[in-house]
Amino acid sequence: MTSPQLVPATSPDPTASRYRDSVDEILAEFDSSLGGLAMAVVDQRRLEAGENVIVQVAKDSALKRYLRQFGDWMIVLLLVSAVITGFLGDLGTASVLVVLVAFNTLIGVVQEVRAEKTMEALEKLVDPSSQVFRDGTLTEVESRSLVPGDVIRLTEGSSVPADVRLITTTAFSTNDFALNGESDPTRKYATAIPHEVPLADRHNLAFAGTTVATGEALGLVTATGMHTELGRIARLSQSAPSTRSPLQVETSLIAKYVSYGVAVVSVVVLIIAVQADLPFKEALLFAVGFACALIPQGLPAEVNTALAAAAGTLARQNALVKKLNSVETLGATHVICTDKTGTLTKNEMTVSELLVGDTNYQVSGIGYQPVGAITPGPRSADAEARLVAMLTVGVFANNARLVPPDHEVTTWRILGDPTEGALLVAARKAGLDTTALRAGMTEIGELPFDSTRKLMTSIRRAEDGTTTAYSKGAPESVLARATMIDDGTIVRAITDTDRTALLAVHSEKASRALRNLLFARRELTGSDAESTDIAVIERNLTVLGLVSMEDPIRNAVPDAVAVVLGAGVKVNIVTGDFSITAEAIAHQAGLEGDGQLTVVTGTELATMTDATVLAHALRGGTVFSRVAPEDKVRIVDLVKASGHVVAVTGDGINDAPALRHANIGVAMGASGTDVAKQSADIVLLDDSFATLVGAIREGRTIYRNITKGVLSCLTSNVAEFVVNSVSLALASLLGVPLALNILQILAIDLLGEIFPIAALGNDPAEGETMKDQPRKAQAHILNRRSLVDIVVCGALIGGFAIANYLVFYGRAGLNPVTEPVPAALLAQAMSVTYATIMICQLVSIIQRRSLHGFFTRYQFTNRFFWLSIGLALSIMTVILYVPLVAAFFGTGPLSLIDWACAAAAALAFLGIREGTALTRRHLSRLTPVTTP
């Protein structure tokens, strides 16, 4: 016996030939039979194919992730500064710097660590045990022990443990939603498919990770573990590159430039200090102080605090943020590639329209709760009887059950096919007791649906002995077997005109994303009542009416799409569902905006160049239908490579690779699979596209808040640099003592400004946030305008501070150039410098909060900000007036006149800032607007 040719792990299509083989051919290929494999063969094949498990990728250890944080230049500079100050004997400053390094690196680890559980979630999709034939006996084994060639039994409610080629089926269907995005269960059969079809249409195959919706089947295992379709998706997920968010890129850029500047300036300062005859130890400490003045030590903490605040806000809005930087990434999104089923729609089939004779009925209510009405009404007795007769077909030709809420599940739910469940709900809305109806008509036979007939018939016998066949199916299939029609007035022979009219109605409704079933019945008499022949039963049918159902679009979706399109974000649908359904949903959602909707099928996508695919994605309003996971990844990677930020939404296993490849993956929390949720950066707990739009708004707001924080943070660094530069010049030329020490600089950066700047993260949106275009990838927080603003503001604050420092000596009646300065007086002088910088910096932060400056109603928002201002002032007071703390920082108490000088500096700074802003706004109004 030869072993079958196993599908290699790198095969792009492990099922390429399986669906085209007959049952005999597939059994022969795998040297198997209906009795299964011999145990000796099983052991050999397990050695060849390995265990039926999804292999996980090795992850970095926590230690490795922590050590990686030391690649940040800011961290390196702080660590070097700590080592130098400690070596020179300044243990207090060294300790503060070491704690700061530890804190920032810890934040980096927490930020970087993600819940890498995708592979674990994939593995959980395989049942721990399976029913398999071995040596001709049906037995139960661990699913991980299955091998190619095994014959397994699949029953309703069980999971499919491996990829299988079906051998026999009985009313068998599987829920493939997680793999192909189709909301309806997929009917399966065992016959070969002679021509090439896409994966979603290979209806004689069942795939690992899906579940059995109805019936039972025997299947031959053709692939296990990483060789399955599920394993192929797992490999796609594993191949996702590690990418940095726009904010990470921006902060890294800032860190890079600041680090280079600090290194160069510190060396220059050290050389100047030594040449100015300062002792080397003092010169080195001064150079370290310069470094500390330039390094925005609190920036990582401030940014992450702002992101955490935004994550908290989103959590209250049903958006769970798994990765902090993803909050801001959403705000930078240019393109959204959204799934359809479960994201734009509810993933709950609902009957919405009925056609009985020539009367069109509308059915209200959505979902599986049997609450709603059928209009128009009230109806005549005859019309009511015809409506009931038609709906009764959907009750009898039906294997589903409608289950009311109970102590475990608080919502109505369907057991079985969701489409059949929707028919029961419609009958209940018409007032029918579906349970009593079924009890009164005993089912004596069923002709299950198959893809050839596209029809399902239930044969039922009443208590009086009459036998009736109830049929439902595709309109064209029912019409081909119908000879009569109830036209709403009489039952008469059906004509070609009737058939044409019904098919036209069917096409029109299908174009609106409605799925249509035609209902018919036939009274069986004589020998026909005892026959089991399909051709005999399903003939001479009488058409009763057309049922139209939909997976309804979520109520908030159209408004949410309009908002996001107004914000300049392009939206595309990328789905495994059929193009006609997806296109109709796109129209209902308003996806085309003011442009034109474009539909691209998976087959068309395969022939398109990358440039054409990218053009469709960037233009937006494109429906990519019947696409495979690789197609989704291709679209996402093309958008990313073009420099645009792309967000992907999804809820199925087939969405996981795209979620991982995207700049930001957004999974559905309520209906999504564990795999999708573990692959995503953000999980929408309510599955609402509107929640995603709210998250984009929050992302844009947080970027504005972070920008305010970064500019404020760097402003104080420039001010400290100015003070130290002037101090160095005065010390080297005139012998004037330094105006600030290292600990006072750290007190400004880490104990003074950090809380107000962090509180900026709670600032609400200002202006029309969702009417702006997405920011360009080339746009940076630090640009020419912002750099000029930072330098001017920092120079003003630094200039006022050094002026107050020197004025203090004049008020004290001491000349620091010619006279020695007592330690207590020096502490007070340095305290004046410290207080001036602090108060001016707080005014600067307040002034930067609003686009309209200091004096605006916006200042009354965000109570946390004003509490943080109070906290900063309290900390400054403690540093100045509590003896032990003052001794540590080298400060001294200030008099009222000292405070008045600091306050005067702050008022002067504010006057200059507001005056400049007012002048700028006035000039902008005077500038004529030219038409290009």
From TrEMBL:
Any single Gene Ontology cellular-component annotation: plasma membrane
Boundaries of every Cation-transporting P-type ATPase N-terminal domain copy: 17-90
Database matches in InterPro entries: ATPase_P-typ_cation-transptr_C, ATPase_P-typ_cation-transptr_N, ATPase_P-typ_cyto_dom_N, ATPase_P-typ_P_site, ATPase_P-typ_TM_dom_sf, ATPase_P-typ_transduc_dom_A_sf, ATPase_P-type_domA, Cation_transp_ATPase_P-type
Alphabetized Gene3D superfamilies for the sequence: Calcium-transporting ATPase, cytoplasmic domain N, Calcium-transporting ATPase, cytoplasmic transduction domain A, Calcium-transporting ATPase, transmembrane domain, HAD superfamily/HAD-like
Coiled-coil positions: none
One Pfam family cited in the UniProt record for this chain: Cation_ATPase_C
PANTHER family on file: CATION TRANSPORTING ATPASE, SODIUM/POTASSIUM-TRANSPORTING ATPASE SUBUNIT ALPHA
Protein name: Cation-transporting P-type ATPase
